Amino acid sequence: MKIKLKNINDYTKELTCVVPWEDLENSFQDEFNRMKLNHTPKGGRKGKVTGINLEIFKRNYGPAIEANFAEKSLNVYYRQAIEKENLTPIDQAQISNLDFSEGGELTFTLSFQIVPDIKLPNYEKKFKINMTKYLQTDQDLEMSLNELRQQHSNIKTVDEGAKSNNFIMGDFQELDEGGLPIIGKKMEKQYIKLGVGAFTDSAEKNLLGVKSGETRKVTVNYGEEKKAKYEIYVHKVEEQILPELNDDFATTASPDLKTLDQLKDKLKENIQYSIDDDYEKRKREEFINYFISKTKFSAPDSMVSRYLDKLAEEQSKKDNNLDKEKFREDSKKVAEFNVKWFILKDTLLEKSKISVSNDDLNNEIDKIVKESNEEEKKIRDFFSDHNNKSSLANNLLNDKLFMHINEFAVIKDKEKNTSELRK
Description:
Distance between the termini: 69 Å
Structural class: alpha+beta
Helix content: 40-55%
Strand content: 15-25%
Radius of gyration: 36 Å
Number of strands: 11
Mean pLDDT: 93
Low-confidence stretches: none
Number of helices: 11
């Protein structure tokens, strides 16, 4: 068999094969005889096809036998060809120029996609990335303490009239420009907080002093030149009573603590953990961006299409009215990016010989059991499921890979306060 291989692009191959008759003759004769044995000539017995009946059989069934044989042989020689060329197709091959007749060569051309061969950047000689490292401030602690106070607050009904920061629960009837109610534009028993969000400035001013059972007309400015006028019937006015910041509050918020200082230390640890976790996630993203930007290749269409199929299927479960074609088009760049990283990751894992053993998995499950408040049996039952264990293995594999990459990264940190994040 003669093989001619042509590169169409990074991931598409065109394979042309020519198989000589001498390689085909015996198998073709077997196919011909098999068909002949199942044929009953007119006025004769099944399988007894000789003389004029053989000529008639060849004339009537020869082209079909040749076509059927060509199709079967194509699959056989296609597998031989890709094995010889050490190729692994990732989609169904497209057939063209298939030609065969008894006594002649079998020729065919197949086009298919493969995972492209890529040349990794020489990252092991060190590579640089720029990062922003955020530093926590006193404001972070204040916000965390305030959030805890909100969670442990009490609500008190206000009878003497609403003040700033009070809550109002009321029915909101939207009005037209003439001040008439708009049918279908009524929201019942909605909560707002005076002095927050859209209910600041004049909207807040018009509601100050309002009591349960009263009605007020208010124009709310939502920004971007969008305003709405409401008639609000007030059901009740409430005040949020926040607990004092003291040792008793610390014990209420976290029973294992005894003092407010201990609570503050714990909150600082949690804040730092969140900052560090965010830093690691962003660092991994920078690693991925580095490899994709430094490795020039195209993502195979077939892999991108399958990725988009999966994304669209998952999104359809959330949105019954999803425009799948528009969604696929909008998601195409993300799909191409992720497919490229999938290919790069496999190449990096193979090059670095990183893998996850059963011992790695068992040790990680033991660690999860030790650190979790869940019952041990429940955790181990969860990971006895193949999909859950496979997901854990994939996470460990990612961790090992990024640890490996990190060994060669030169990271330049620019420090900023977390207040920059809130701007």
